């Protein structure tokens, strides 16, 4: 069958491609050949989104024998790029901010479950953390909740929207539950990058910052009289997730030490005997009209890659937790996750 470029464009292209694919596997192979661009929701080539994406994309490219490149364009640009390409030549990898941005009303974020197809989950960054200066009067998160409940103003440096803010929202919700009417004593100080948040703590402009094990562990090794010295008070990841981390942990902080900062040792109540935890997960997103055959091929390829086991070691060496879920399972998982955390966000509005 001869297909013209005109026939291959427009709304009917996906249906046409599916019909051809049913009679010949050549079209699908052609779709996956050449250059495949994987845009990510970050502009940094040194942060966790790029690291995770590079590990996965390199393995996928090798397995499928195609050219794939990670492009750090940022969230809004990544979504716009994905919107324009239903052919499968553009894919996206991002984390929970993809749906949290919409829940927080961040400009440029749509409901991903309506506008895009959810692809497979690939990994977890277990390091999302909250820290205080090493000489802080607050020894733990329980002290912070109690202080806010007694009328003290607690300033928390976060990057508004998404993963950085969801822990702050949960903490504020917990204060509202345990000390009704006192939750506004927890005040968000909206900043930008991790270095900006760190600087706020160094300059005594905030009492607590959102950080990460990867970015901030080095500062926890400093002596208490150092202006940059800080210590962990909370990791939002689940106990099960941290238990999968390497025994040596990261830097000079072991896995056993990190477990001191997660539930049940640290409790942030959600009410009804439920405690808040949050795993920062990375997953693929696709154009809604992308050929389902490509979705299936990527799912199968990644399943084979994870079965081989090498990628797990690569991820763990960089303090990430392997977490493969095929597309249908990932979609159900993230929908449920979004609904669960939407209730926390709604409670503090």
Describe the structure.
It is a single chain. The chain has 349 residues and is of the alpha/beta class. It has two domains: 32-125 and 280-347, D-Maltodextrin-Binding Protein, domain 2, CATH 3.40.190; 128-275, D-Maltodextrin-Binding Protein, domain 2 (3-Layer(aba) Sandwich). Helices cover 42% and strands 21% of the residues. The chain is built from 15 helices and 13 strands. The chain has a six-stranded mixed β-sheet, sandwiched between helices. Strand 6 (154-158), helix 8 (163-178) and strand 7 form a beta-alpha-beta unit. Helix 3 (48-64) crosses helix 13. The longest helix is centred in the last third of the chain and has 21 residues, at 327-347. Residues 1-30 have low confidence and may be disordered.
Q: Strand share of the residues?
A: 15-25%
Q: State the distance separating the first and last CA atoms.
A: 57 Å
- Overall morphology: globular
Corresponding CATH architecture of the largest domain? 3-Layer(aba) Sandwich
Pattern of helices and strands: HHEHEHEHHEEHEHEHEHEHHEEEHHEH
Biggest pleated-sheet summary: 6 strands, mixed
Helix-residue proportion: 40-55%
**Number of helices in the DSSP assignment:** 15
The low-confidence runs, each spanning 5 or more residues with pLDDT under 50, are 1-30
Say how many strands there are: 13
Radius of gyration: 22 Å
Question: CATH topology of the largest domain, anyone?
Answer: D-Maltodextrin-Binding Protein, domain 2
Look at the structure and give the mean pLDDT.
89
User: In order across it, which strands form the biggest sheet?
Assistant: 2-1-3-12-4-13
Oligomer: single chain
Name the CATH superfamily assignment of the largest domain.
Bordetella uptake gene, domain 1
How many domains? The number is 2
Structural class: alpha/beta
What is the CATH first-level class name of the largest domain?
Alpha Beta
